[in-house]
Design brief:
By secondary structure, the chain is α+β, with helices and mostly antiparallel strands. It has two helices and four strands.
Amino acid sequence: MMAYKITSACVSCGTCADTCPLSIITQGDETYVIDADQCIECGSCADACPVGAIEQE
């Protein structure tokens, strides 16, 4: 299983959280965070990210 993760390139725009079908992306201290245990690897967040800050682990 290769859950997605949000890298330090995140600009905290929230687009990923808005597109996640499971609503498992939340605002962290510095960037948004994906709950890797619940990620179904659909890629919606990565496709929506305007700065390419989301990649598979």
